[in-house]
Amino acid sequence: MKSMKKYILLGILSLIIVGGGIGYYMFNKKVPTLENTTSDYVIGANDLFNEFENNESEALKKYENKIIEVTGKVISVKNNDNDSNIILEADMAMAGGVNCSFKYKQDEEITKGSIVTIKGQCQGFLMDVVLNNSQLIK
Q: Where exactly are the transmembrane stretches of this chain (predicted)?
């Protein structure tokens, strides 16, 4: 009976160690860049925002977790120490339109009012359409 408890404890300890290793790996796993990926959709910022504004559930089915290449007018640029955020204008939006988050600080000078093309992964719609893991195309 004593040796059976020892094996059960050893089994539980092994599961904890394996689970901890998997958790550590998943936590530290890097997100791949979109640099060499093809876009699922190429669309303007106004059109993308309007699709979400008019029918959010259908737009989510179509765009969520897809790679989207969007072109629009920059209305906001925020550079932090390690990342950047660019918001593209949409005419129907009360404020904002398409929110593009970058994993790194933008080296290129992007000014308010310029027209840019950005590729990112669509995460859904809050007040803006949200694109994460973005890459500046031009």
A: 7-27
